[in-house]
Design goal:
CATH architecture of the largest domain: 2-Layer Sandwich
Strand order of the largest sheet: 1-4-5-9-8-7-6
Number of helices: 12
Largest sheet: 7 strands, mixed
Helix content: 40-55%
Strand content: 15-25%
Order of helices and strands: HHHHHEEHHEHEEHEEEHEHH
CATH topology of the largest domain: BirA Bifunctional Protein, domain 2
Radius of gyration: 43 Å
Number of domains: 2
Structural class: alpha+beta
Shape: elongated
Bound molecules: 3,4-dihydroxyphenylalanine
CATH class of the largest domain: Alpha Beta
Length: about 350
Amino acid sequence: MELDEIKQAALKAINDAKNSDALTSVRNLFLSKKSEINQKMGELKNLAAEERKTFGQKINETRNAISKAFEEKLASINAQALDARLKNEKIDISLPANSYNKAGVNPLALVEEEITEIFLGMGYQVYEGSDVESDEYNFELMNIPKDHPAREMQDTFYLSDTMLLRTHTSPAQARAMKEARGGPVRIICPGKCYRRDNDDLTHSHQFMQIEGLLIDKGIHLGHLEKTLEAFVKKLFGEKREIRLRSSYFPFTEPSVEVDVSCDKCGGKGCPTCKGTGYIEILGAGVVNPRVLKLNGYDPKEYSGFAFGVGLERIAMLKYGIDDIRRFYQNDVRFLNEFKRR
Ligand code: DAH
């Protein structure tokens, strides 16, 4: 065949090739070593110099034209194949997703988070206490010596003669004071507590508290009252009022019991508040100078206030829960009622 004929035949074959296999055969036929064009290269040596040059050029041009057509066709076949694959593998994103259950949150955890937020906002730090405590920190350093009657109400689980499961979060006070080495303190300590209680509607052998302690120069009962008022209004709403009743705790002097005005009757008295208009929510007081001394402070220089909140009680009031045991039963129907905001 003449070069022009070869070129026409090749271009037609390339054009007709339907897929990459067909195209490969066409290439083998027209561009491989055994192809006609290559044989024509062999003929070059028989030609005179002048003719060799023009003929050589023509061969090259022909081969380049075929190559180019081949590359273009290959690109177009590949593009078509990709298109077809993309069409096939298309995902229908309009299908509804599989639904999954988002876990509820234990209301105790919710209340703990909320109270912690409020005190963080007032400049307090979270102090991590420990469930396992020594007799010294749980009792002695909180001014509850061995023969003190308060020990009777706070019987607990003993791990040895000196180690026990803490009966309240108050030992965190002693630990924080020790770490502050006689300087100012502003902490809350949320955590579990344990007592040898028989479980009933409002008592559990394991429960949660949040302890609070602030020590600085010139701190008095007025600071405590305003702090707790701000706390209660943030937690329960602006309309709620607090009331302080005098009480007794070994580690505070004076000591108070803090009540919040009843949500149902607004303070008039109803069955919820047993006719008193108020509901007790926490114990507090001015830190007993003896406790300051026991923990390395000079009561003439520093004073402070402390409080202890029972989380179950707060959660029961806030969410209208009537049985403390619900917090610990892991009943998903109960837990699913509570979600993070
Ligand atoms: N620790 C007390 C209890 O478990 C609660 C308490 C009362 C803590 C008064 C305090 C406080 O810090 O000042 O019954």
